[in-house]
Amino acid sequence: MFKKILFPTDFSKHANEIFKNIPELRSIGVREIVLTKVIDLNEVLGIKVGFDLHTWLRHEEIESRRSLSKLAEFLQQHGLNAKYTIQLPIGDPATEIVNYATRERVSMILIGSRGKSVTKDILIGSVCEGVIRRAKTPVLIVKNSNTFSKLFNRVIYAHDLSRYSDEIFEYVKFIALLSGGEVIILHVLEGNAYRSAVKSKLNSIKKQLENEGVDVNVHIIYGAPHREIVKASEELNATIIMVGPRGLNERPSLGSVTDSVIRYSKIPIFLYKN
Q1: What are the chain's domains?
Q2: What would the pLDDT profile of 103-122 be if each residue is shown by its tens digit?
Q3: Residue 232, C-beta contacts closer than 8 angstroms, at least 6 positions apart
Q4: By percentage, how much of the chain surpasses pLDDT 70?
Q5: What are phi and psi of 123, to 5 degrees?
């Protein structure tokens, strides 16, 4: 299910810290890593006097290739197949990353989340946000250098009764069985209506997972969904949140609840996309 993943890197400290933990993803079946570096022309736009674009591009390509080669060698030494590419975007970097993921038919994109501005981008990062919105395959968003050996110890399976939440089930089951971690099925009610129906639905999912030998708990709480999901992840010492792209009544490419959870969560997010 996760045999081949794509890791875009900008060689930042944050990206390098995440990269060092990639070999631990072998525990969920990862066998091949595709590395990519997008040379971002936005870094030099506006520089006119005395700037040699051709020389700059050549230097960036040489340095990127050298760095990617070292990263690939590290992965191969840890028993993973690895390949890499350098991309010069015609459009924006996020689109290039998503298009490359599609061409390579990867099963997941692993991306670090960070930002440089004082706007909302500081909570995600513009390239990361673009990848999240355009991706056609699941995305694992990591905001800090979590040790991946503990990444799936306590999984919050955020279920809002939508078909997207149902479609995550196989991923949750797969990860739980391989990692031996606990699954916390979480639903946030905004009122007392439908509690009985919600409880019945979630207990049915719980039973399916328990029949496979997974340790499962169900939590039904009240409040604003995005705030309560983030709050619960901290109170329950969760290690990752698994969530769908949008809920029952959300039409945008990324639903408002999911968007907010990604922005404010302090732990990694597994975002289901298809």
Answers
A1: 4-142 (3.40.50.620), 152-271 (3.40.50.620)
A2: 999 999 999 886 444 344 44
A3: 156, 184, 186, 219, 221, 238
A4: 86
A5: -85, -20
Per-position DSSP letters for the chain, written without gaps between them: --SEEEEE----HHHHHHHHTGGGGGGGT--EEEEEEE--GGGTTT--TT--HHHHHHHHHHHHHHHHHHHHHHHHHTT-EEEEEEE--SS-HHHHHHHHHHHHT-SEEEEE----SSSGGGGT-HHHHHHHHH-SS-EEEESS---GGGTTSEEEEE--SSHHHHHTHHHHHHHHHHH--EEEEEEEESSSTTHHHHHHHHHHHHHHHHHTT-EEEEEEEES-HHHHHHHHHHHTT-SEEEE-S--TT--SSS-HHHHHHHHH-SS-EEE---
Which class for 191: exposed (0-12), middle (13-18), buried (19 or more C-beta within 10 A)?
Answer: exposed
